[in-house]
Amino acid sequence: MRLPAGGAAGPRPAARLLRAALLFVGLWDVQMQTLTNINKPTYIWQTGPWGRCMGSECGPGGSQSRAVWCAHSEGWTTLQTNCPQSERPDNQQSCFRVCDWHKELYDWQLGAWNQCVPVSLRNPGVPRPAVCTRGEEGLQTREVGCVQKADGAPAEDAICEYFEPKPRLEQACLIPCPRDCVVSEFSPWTACSKTCGMGLQNRVRSILAPPLFGGSACPNLTEFRTCQPGSCPGPESMYSLRVGSWGPCTTTTTPSRQARQAEPDPPSSPDRPNHPGRRKRPDRPDRPDRPKRPDRPNRPDRPKRPDRPNRPDRPNRLDRQNRPDRPDRPDRLTRQERQAKRRKNKENKEAKGERVRERMRDRGRVKDPETRELIKKKRTRNRQNRQGGKFWDLQVGYQTREVTCVHRSGSTEELSLCNQQTLPVTYQACVITKDCEVTEWSEWSACSKECYDLNGPKGQRTRTRRIQQFNVGGGAECPHLEESEPCSPQGEGVPPCVVYTWKTTEWSECRVDTLLSQQDRRRGNQTGLCGGGIQSREVYCVQASSDPPSNLSSLKSKEASRPVNSDLCLGVSPNTTQLCHIPCPVECEVSSWSAWGPCTFENCQDQSSKKGFKLRKRKILNEPTGGTGNCPHLTEAIPCEEPTCYDWLLVKLEECIPDNDKECGPGTQSPQVQCINSDGVFVDRQLCRDAILPMPVLCEVPCPKDCVLSPWTAWSLCSHTCSGKNTEGKQTRARSILAYNAGEGGVQCPNSSTLQEARSCNEHPCTVYHWQTGPWGQCIEDTSVPSANGSISRSGAGASGTEASCSVGMQTRKVICVRVNVGQVPPKKCPESLRPETVRPCLLPCKRDCIVTPYSDWTPCPTTCQAGGATKKKQSRKRIIIQLPANGGQDCPEVLFQEKECEAPSVCPGYRWKTHKWRRCQLVPWSIRQDSPGAQETCGPGLQARAVSCRKQDSGQVDIGVCLKLAGPMPSLTQACQLPCQDDCQLTSWSKFSSCAADCVGVRTRRRALVGKSKKRDHCKNTQLYPLSETQYCPCNKYNAQPVGNWSDCILPEGGRVEGLLGMKVQGDIKECGQGYRYQAMVCYDQDNRLVETSRCNSHGYIEEACIIPCPSDCKLSEWSNWSRCSKSCGSGVKVRSKWLREKPYNGGRPCPKLDHVNQAQVYEVVPCQSDCGQYVWVAEPWSVWKVSNVDLKENCGEGVQTRKVRCMQNTIDGPSDPVEDYLCDPEEMPLGARESKLPCPEDCVLSDWSPWSRCPLPCNANNTRERTANPIRQPGESKQCPPTTEREPCTLNTNCFHYSYNITDWSTCQLSERAVCGSGIKTRMLDCVRSDGKSVDLKFCEELNLERKWQMNASCVVECPINCQLSDWSSWSECTHTCGPAGKLWRRRTVIQASQGDGRPCPSQLEQWKPCPVKPCYSWRYSAWSPCKAEGARCGEGLRFRNVSCFVSDGSGKEEGNLVDEELCGDLEQTVEGDKQITLEESCTVPCPGECYLTDWTLWSPCQLNCVGGDDLGFGSVQVRSRAVLAQEPENLLQCPEQEWEARPCTDGQCYEYKWMTGSWKGSSRLVWCQRSDGLNVTGGCLATSEPVSDRSCDPACDKPRSYCTEAGMCGCEEGYTEVMTSDGVLDQCTVIPVLEIPTAGDSKADVKTIRAISPTQPTTNLPGRSGRTWFLQPFGPDGKLKTWVYGVAAGAFVLLVFIFSMTYLACKKPKKPQRRQMNNRLKPLTLAYDGDADM
Prior knowledge:
By secondary structure, this protein is mostly beta strands. The protein starts with a helix and ends in a 28-residue tail after the last helix.
């Protein structure tokens, strides 16, 4: 389509104008920004902080300065001239100079925190949470300022900041979520307020939780609905008589004379003359104690007075007009006659009284003035002493009330509109209200503390005041009459207080046996135990003396302090147990036996006898405990013949020198000898002059053609140590052929038999003797030395101190001669000179007497008086052993504890109220009563008073204040009384019921009787109205007992303790396990299921059952295994021993030590060991005969081989003895077992074997050499030379030359004595000599180099003692926790005296035990419910309601109300109800008039509710609430109702409640929805309104299709078995049956056919949806057209199944890898001692 020309060009000018405008605006904006930047100052003044205030004086006169500079706007500093000088800030100002003393004048004043403001309000960017859960975070601020303390005037903050920083001005806070009001469910509807006509029904509810933190207010607590039981037969009454409340109690004032004259005589007529001399007493009460006047009979027929006019001026006078129901009164004449008769009687009476008074006046005139004065004083005294007269002034008055007529609309109408037969009384007697009056405070009493003690508790002083006037008639209560305050005595003469201090006995002996475990084998034999142990002592309290403390050494001369009650000692008591140590005896260690010495004389000085001995000796290597007396014998002797004291020792044989100076051939060897004594010591050669000098030895130097033999080897060890019949010692030696002779020319080689020699050795018989010593005997007094032995006490504490000695005594021992392996022989068989001593001097320890304290004072008797029973208590006293006797000192006394019965306790001075006789009944004054209808002068209701006094139980009178304090509430002083009118019947009170002869048999009765004139009145004899006896069947009591409560703890019988020494109490000594008994309480019920005394059921209150407390079993380990062999055969290694776990601990036994973490059943002990590098040596036998391989038969020489046996043997002091395994010897030092060499030919040079290599000089250096040599044995023949006799080789480090150094091992574990369990031990370490190639060698290599040894090889150490837990004795059983009921328990407790240490037995968990108390019934006084409020004589208004107090029995749990029982059972209880002594049995109340709308009574306080979320306390406290609902009786007055009321108060121990919505099942399109509290209570409020479930599910349009219904989502769906067919706009069109998969069942006749068929909804079929066992419905779509959840589940399961199938297929087809062989690490792991303490076996 083509546009017109004008249409296309039209918009272009407008677009251009718009662009021009935009360009102009942009340019203007740029220009303005440029102008702004031009006007902005480039240079500005900047200031620094103010400096410190300086000044010469403190206060406001100081000055402070600051830096001021000019800076560019970009920040850099420039010249000050660039900034405008007019704007320059000040650089100085006046200030307040703060000094230290200003701290007393100024302080921060903190304002109150303001309201918490949400953070979201202060920061608009922070969003507020949509739903409040815990609360909203907020901030609260406060004002903080510096002020003067004196007047609060503000000051500069800098002054206060000088002393402390400014307190914070804001803090975080939490704004709790709003809590809506929560109310209970409604009560049921009440009955209709009327029986006819239109009335109201109401139902009320109470508030359970108040609205908090801005929550919604409480709803109405009352709901009303109208009701109309039926139409009234007549007109409905519209008026009600209402009585008002009683007015104040007043007394009748004495009227003026004119008023008295004007007042008519009661009840006489107006024409009755007044007696001039008689005072009218309208307020005088009747005198019941006066006899009845016979001339004034009861007048029931007294006519009414219709002629008396009404008195409208009296407000409380009822209108008596228009009373058609009152009968006409009799005529006036009859009444006047009666009045005249009454006047006459009164005149007679007054005349008689006048005569009596006249006689009394005459009698008074007879007495003189002195007598009259005495009588007057006596009357005054009697009046003052009248009971109660000085404490209360009871004055009976009267009070009145108003009676009105009220319309049901609430308005007050005329009284005549209320037509009622009898009108209510408008007066009553009352007691004039008087407040309590007390005296002024008395002076303060003297301080109860009479001594001066700066740190001790203060005393008390009291002051009192007395009651002058008791409160009566509801006056103000009396204040407290006594007050006290702490005090300290003042003055110079105040003595210091007695100070008490702790004192201890001496420590008991150190005991180790208590530390032994159960399976320790040392338990059987405890002698010799040593090491760590435990000792104990007793601690007691004594009065501290002013003398300096004396130690136990002076206790003999000074009496020990007397024990007092431990409560008097303050501070922590000294410990009663401590660790101690018994030094372990050092066993005697001896060396090995030396070799047997030569046969020598017993005494070389006396060689007369031919008897000699061979001796061998050993030495003591250490210093044993107690000297060397207990060491084994050190010398053994063998008798021998031909003894000598000196002999020649062959040192060596010189070289063989051929005879006749030849070069070879036979010769001799000269011996080199030295003279030695029998001990092998070199002596002067002259002493051996009698000994046989060794002769020169024949020898031979081989000639070149001779046979050459090697030198003899050394003699072997002797084969036996002695010689007997069957044994003989032999030694052998051998030599070998080195070269054969040359044919016939030389000396031939001997036979092979001559190459060995044997000789006898150790020819002495095998009879070895030695002296054997017995133990040293007891040190006995040496009578030859003067005695100085006195009794002293041990100095110092504990057995570790050395005991003082008092004299020298004597010890003997037995010494016998013993033949080894035989026994005792005569002493002459042993060398007499070596006989040990049999007597030695010793130090006798001093005698120590037993020291005990004096007896303590007798414990006070439990009470100085006894309230009830006469059971006698016991008192006791004790004394304590301070020092035990020793060394024959005086024994301790047997009796340490005495007990006696207290004297018969006096009866407690109880106090009681004594009530005196009731005074006469006082009526309301006649002037008040006379206008009331039917009022009679001498009868009717009144008040009577009585006096109350305070008495002791023995009737002695005491001050009234004592009973106020000790005797419970005071009895009432007044009571209502009734002066009987003439027609009243008077009866006595009921007697008690007579007793029953037996339960369930007969009856019991009680009686009462008529009193006075009532006996003669016929209507009083009507036993229907006034029964005089009552009869009851005797109670039929049946009782049954049953157990109650849990079983108690298992309790062991008393007396299971074994006392240790000096009261030492160790857990091992206490019977802590075994058979005990447990108890269960029994309760007894009567036939009414009321709790009664258990004795009624013939039960002692318990069921008793045997029980077992399992004994603790300690961890059981095996004995230590033997030590393993040292891990190294040379140098230091380790040796190990172990224990195996046999049994784990249980029942609190000793725990196991730390087990090996690899093998959980073993304990290892590893110690270093030192192996002597020379203990195993290689021993080589002589070389064998040459086996020549290239034999020259002619020359018998050439190449050959020699062999020998090499064995590893154990080295002893006598040389190598037994062969051992070869690995024990050093393989590097093993000699060669074979050698190849050349057998020299005749005339060849024969050399000896090579000597050992010489040592390389140290340090090793390749320039140094070592050498070895050989000697020529046979010189060569002519033209033959000897080979070189010396060989040399260079010294190479770690090949043939070594450096040596010491190496120190680690410390061993702490080693104890075999007899010790713990305590002090020794740890050791070893020193190694290590070669430079790392090999351990013999220490002699390092010792020869004199290397420095600076290490300590031994150190002391401590093994922690396994101290078992020690407990105190069980305390005595406590008082019962409940005075009655089955919940009472008796408790006893014990404390831990010594906590377990180390591997000691742990403390048991049970430190307290309980058993039930005998169940007693819980009797209590309880109120009955209040009676309905009753307005006496009227329909509504102020009335009274009453209740009784009765005796109830219960089980004390508070879960049940209890049962009513006879009041006699509560006779011993003080009459209190729930702790309140003030019993209130009546109270005023209001009966609402029909037209009134009023509030109910307050509900009970709701349960205490905590502010919490999800069980967490939010910290806002707990609250409880009570409420008053509104009630009304007339529908038209509902608008006049007051507001409902509620009040809340904080409380403690609140419970956390949660609220949640609950729903019922759907019924049609609706269901019930309600809120429920977590305790199951249905409530309104509390649940979140936003989460309230839907209660109505109506669908639009309605679901009217067959098989359709409205779903919860508000859409139409189909019933089960049907699927939805929807229209295009999503509306249900119809419900169609879904395809059914029929699964045949066992009972189906078509079990062999599977069909899928569609069922027409109109076709009748038996396969209905209800047959769930036959048919499955597969309905994939829900009512809303969406897939159901199970469809997704099926799809996910199918997917997982496919993944599983693919994975298994892949794994099955995959080629398996070649398995890798796992290498086992068979190396031994290092031994460790780690263990968790409880591993499974």
